[in-house]
Amino acid sequence: MCRLLGVVTHAPTRLADTLTDLIEPFTGLSREHCDGWGVAAWQPDGELAVSKDVLPAHASPAFAATLAGSVTDAALLHLRMASPGLPTEPRNTHPFSAGALAFAHNGYFAPVEAIDELIDPDLLAGADGDTDSERYFLRVLTRLHDEDPVDALALAAADIRERAQFASLNCLLLTQDALYAYSEENPDSEVSRRRGPDFFRLRYQARAGRVVVASSGIGAQDGDGWSLLPYRQVLEIRRSDLRVSTHLVRGALVGAGG
């Protein structure tokens, strides 16, 4: 299992400064979620920069250097805890990216090939790694051929729900326009029963100049300025004005194939 953290700010700022109150607890989680880290961030020149390492974030000099050196108004961060049997390699390290898109997932589904038939064949042929998470991203990319990011996320999750066993489909998607988050847990999964009802919750906090969305474990609690993202809803944080909205995609509530 993994941990997610996303942020959008009103102006480009060093991530080390933007997340000064969250870096220490988030990095601390890498003592358990220790199979690598990744950061995707929009740079002031309009390029999407992706940095990764297979070392735990707390033991990786590159992690601290990335936070100190990334000047951005929108970023997502990921700490990986690899699913059993999946190797700890750069190609399996989140976030996955394609052009102006970056994606990170917290959870798993099985079997890994459960949605392969729903993925554009060219995208599937170009897969870098072995993870279910990358397949999730490729299904989102396939959906994006015909749908907007909100629908693509929710419907891709529904596709997985129909065809696979899963623990969580929580994910972040970073685009040129916005940061999106999707939340869904299977409470009957072994991980959910063992970890408890808060482990897969995503929460978000909006305050002057900054909106963040985060997995549990960094002090994000109901109240205290944090709001719970309901299951099977998509959170949208616009880069242009920090407008925050949540979306319920009705066609995805039960499931959607094709």
> How far is it from the N-terminal to the C-terminal residue, by CA?
28 Å
State the domain count.
Answer: 1
The CATH homologous superfamily is termed Aminohydrolase, N-terminal nucleophile (Ntn) domain
Unreliable sequence segments: none
CATH topology: Glutamine Phosphoribosylpyrophosphate, subunit 1, domain 1
Total strand segments: 15
Order of helices and strands: EHHEEHEEEEHHHEEEHEEEEE
Q: Helix share of residues?
A: 10-25%
Radius of gyration: 17 Å
CATH architecture: 4-Layer Sandwich
Q: Roughly what is the average pLDDT, rounded to an integer?
A: 94
Which class do the helix and strand fractions yield?
Answer: alpha+beta
Strand order of the largest sheet: 3-2-4-1-12-11-13
Sheet-strand content, in percent, reads: 25-35%
User: How can the largest sheet be summarized?
Assistant: 7 strands, antiparallel
Number of helices: 7
CATH C-level class: Alpha Beta
Shape: globular
GO molecular function: transferase activity
Domain Glutamine amidotransferase type-2: 2-258
Protein name: Putative glutamine amidotransferase
Keywords: Glutamine amidotransferase, Transferase
